[in-house]
Amino acid sequence: MQKTEGEESKAENEEVKQVTLMTSDGVKMKVEISIVYEMEIVRSFIEVNDADHSVPFPLPNVSSHTLDLIIELVKNEYDDEFMKTFSHDELKEVLVAANYLNMKTLLDFIATAIANLLEKKSVEFIRNFFNIVNDFTPEEEAEIRKTNEWVFQDLDED
Amino acid sequence: MSSSQYPSVLPQELLVEILSRVPVKDLMRFRCISTWWNHLVFDPSFVKLHLQRSSRDTHILLTFRDYENDESRYCAAPCSTQNLIHNPSSTIDVCHRFNHDCTILGVCNGLVCLQDSYRGDEFEEYWVRFWNPSTRVMSDDSPHIRIRSSHYKYPYLFMFGFGYDDWSGTYQVVFLDNKSQKMEVRVYSLGETCWRNILTCDAFPTLSVHGAYVCGSVNWLALPRSSSRYRWETVTINELEIFSYDLNNERCSYLSMPDGLSEVPPDVPVLEVLKGCLCLSHHQGTHFVVWLMREFGAAKSWTLLLNVNYEDLRIRVLHGLPTLPVILCWSENDNVVLLASYDSAEFILYNMRDNRIEHHELFNDDKFYFFSYDYVESLVLPRLN
């Protein structure tokens, strides 16, 4: 696991059952160790470094807002209803963070949730959702549409 | 990764994480999002990842004959097992129709192997095509096998089977050229230009025409120790075995019948695949009996799945034995099997825990000869990529 910015990161003592994480927007957040243990990138560091507990563990790629959402998701044992309150951007932010933090269960959960969201959606919806530039010529795109007309039926409204 | 901002475009590995969980029909539409998406959908490693993530045992491929204006069509329809169990006749809506001579040799990873034939006076020709019902992509015809009809005399007939060799990643069609003295095993791999001769072994009387594919092997009921003057009535229980051809090591072996099968059934049993396991069904007295080989190759793992009186299935036995019912699907969670009975022309939903019929329903008009195959919606291409 790579160490970020060569900084000597430290974890809180396990006896406290909390670890302080420093988010990209400079917020220090005390997080229960059971939740931190789902973050492989932090866990592997805590386990090999029995060091000074006073310095928070830096997460330069995760904002405090995203970390809040992740903590709530884990606390709620990955509740579908709670996740449905997320905006599209929040879903993508949590996905990127889950990947960075190496949280396997969360990554699977959130990738499945986004996959479900894409079902029956139009090509235009998907391009907007992922910010994708269409690099087909109009003829090329028309050709693919023509050979697979049956997959363009019964779609949701955008 | 130094930016604290959410990147405006997701990295490709995360797109793959999402898309490998999206249904096939949606992915077929997403091909026209951009050139990268178009290539991804049929990229071999993506196809494999998508298949690994697809849930098994949620669908079957239902086949049947549909008589319309005195013409018989061979039909195939992917069905959700849950829908089928709860509403058999109305679940069959989207179906694909083939010409009369067409038949399905088998289904593997969502890829269907269709066999077609031409029968002349002296010669018969057989060939296959591969078809993915989820992407609706069909391959070209394979090279033809041409045989002289007079070379085959009952009970020695040729047999076919279809399977997948995980080790080499190839879909293979097996042809058992079963003449009275010797049997030649020939194999056609998807994408190749010929049928390869693999080996020669002892011939045996043909009991089932289409092989059952399980765990890298194609299996047929066999009587390896029977003489050429074979009659089913004189067969002893020790003679009945399963001929198993292993696609990877290209070798044949024999598997034993269930220990609990103590006498030869009055009719030839049926060997098929149910939820990835070999499944043997037969008459026994007035009962319909079904066995499942839970662990392929392990004779001790044969388990009795069903042993039910025809009266309890409300199949009336008037003259001799009824036609063997066909097992369309089995839900382990609900403890039910869905059967198709030709004598009563109906679907029977049988509860195995309470030993009672939960539901029965007449076949739709003009639909007959139902059969089912394990099925999964996949992106597997019926040609080499």
UniProtKB/TrEMBL annotation, chain A:
Keyword line: Ubl conjugation pathway
Protein name: SKP1-like protein
Function: Involved in ubiquitination and subsequent proteasomal degradation of target proteins. Together with CUL1, RBX1 and a F-box protein, it forms a SCF E3 ubiquitin ligase complex. The functional specificity of this complex depends on the type of F-box protein. In the SCF complex, it serves as an adapter that links the F-box protein to CUL1.
Domain (SKP1 component POZ) ranges: 18-74
Domain of life from the UniProt record: Eukaryota
Domain called SKP1 component dimerisation: residue spans: 104-150
Matches recorded under PANTHER family: SKP1 (PTHR11165)
GO biological process, one term: jasmonic acid mediated signaling pathway
Assembly notes: Part of a SCF (SKP1-cullin-F-box) protein ligase complex.
One Pfam family in the UniProt entry: Skp1_POZ
Record lineage: Eukaryota, Viridiplantae, Streptophyta, Embryophyta, Tracheophyta
InterPro entries for the chain: SKP1, SKP1-like, SKP1-like_dim_sf, SKP1/BTB/POZ_sf, Skp1_comp_dimer, Skp1_comp_POZ
Ranges in coiled-coil conformation: none
Organism: Sphenostylis stenocarpa
Pathways involved: Protein modification; protein ubiquitination
Family affiliation: Belongs to the SKP1 family.
From TrEMBL, chain B:
Domain F-box: 4-49
Organism: Sphenostylis stenocarpa
Gene3D superfamilies associated with the record: 1.20.1280.50
Lineage top rank: taxon: Eukaryota
Name under which the protein is recorded: F-box domain-containing protein
Record InterPro entries: F-box-assoc_dom_typ1, F-box-assoc_interact_dom, F-box-like_dom_sf, F-box_dom, SCF_F-box_component
